[in-house]
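pinging the channel bc i need a second pair of eyes. not urgent but kinda urgent?? the chain im working w is below, pasted from the shared doc
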Amino acid sequence: MKILAVSNLYPPHHIGGYELQCQRMCEGLRGLGHEVFVLTSDHGVSEGAASEAGVRRALRIHGMFGHPWLPLMRLQELERHNNRVLRETIREFRPDVVHGWNFSGLSKSMLWTLQREGRPTAFCVCDHWIARAAEADVWLKWWNQAGSSPAQRLFRKGLEALGYRRRWEAEAPMEPVGKMAFRRAYFCSAALRELTARAGFAVEEAAIIRCSVDTRRFAGSPRSTEAPLQRLLWVGRLHPDKGPMTALRAMTRLRDKYAGKLSLYGRGEPDYENELKKFVRENDLPVTFHEGTPEEMPRVYAGHDALLFTSEWLEPFAITPLEAMASGLPVISTLTGGSAELFRHGENALTYEAGDADDLARQIVALDRDREMRRRIATQGQQDVREACADERVARQTEAYLEETIRIWKP
């Protein structure tokens, strides 16, 4: 197959796990013998940067990742540019299938261009960009929002009367978001698929293909249970929705029950980081703060005994606990979003009520004191990730889905 992958960001210029998933699947599909070309944004690219084989960094981001929100006329230029680049790339590469990834920050008008091109198209959906972000697209919203101001409606009518809407629409489509059809899409979790369906998109029958983990990098035997549980680990974005404060509050409940330490790896807004560090100082907690690159994370997991995954928002399907489980660590986790589809309390993880520091503290004590359970859930968790989420397995599932898309596609 000739596969055109379209993504807002692509490593090494990336923000989170979605883009890393995209890269690994592109490499995995190449390893299976397919020709893959990546179309992505120029985010992070310096002027005069060397070109890359198989990657075109020419799309432009609007209003995200530090890029400005633009007034209408400048936004119109960006929309025309992105759609022109997409059409040119399709014409030059002539893909058998387009593999859409994350469109957050990208022109949603490009989705209409993809539909008009008529080529088989399938989307990998691993966050809320369809359910929550598509409807907020500035370009499409400006042209279709009924509740806009009188001045905006008057300006819009003037542009329509002068024929601008008709001329611009050919280059940068502006049909309403609600009419979009994602005929072929697979989701990382049933929870995300259901959320997207509730937002009004007909994806109830979409496939589920889990996020992948590089089980060659994230590997290792479950820890020896001869020693106590001494080194707890927390990894993620330091933000209230990730629940780091719940982990810190749990540590205050453990003074006479648990002698271990907690390491937090991540960054966040300075004010919130300072709030967390102040809480640690005032409560004299055995907690340290660290930063770690993706390249360092296998070593980080290897240096700890268990992971606390305290997310308190509807995670589509978190990658951090998968990496920890693949590395042989037992995990204590909430059951928000897609996490409920992975964790089985007492079998492959311990679970607790999101935001409940007392419940989390109880699970830490249980994991520390019941060493046989610790060994059992670490072993089962690692087996589950290797069987369901290994890169090679997910690449094969993705390959089959794209081949099926080509086979059944009707323009």
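so The chain has 15 helices and 13 strands. and The chain has two domains: 2-212+391-408, 231-389. — does that match what u expected or am i reading it wrong
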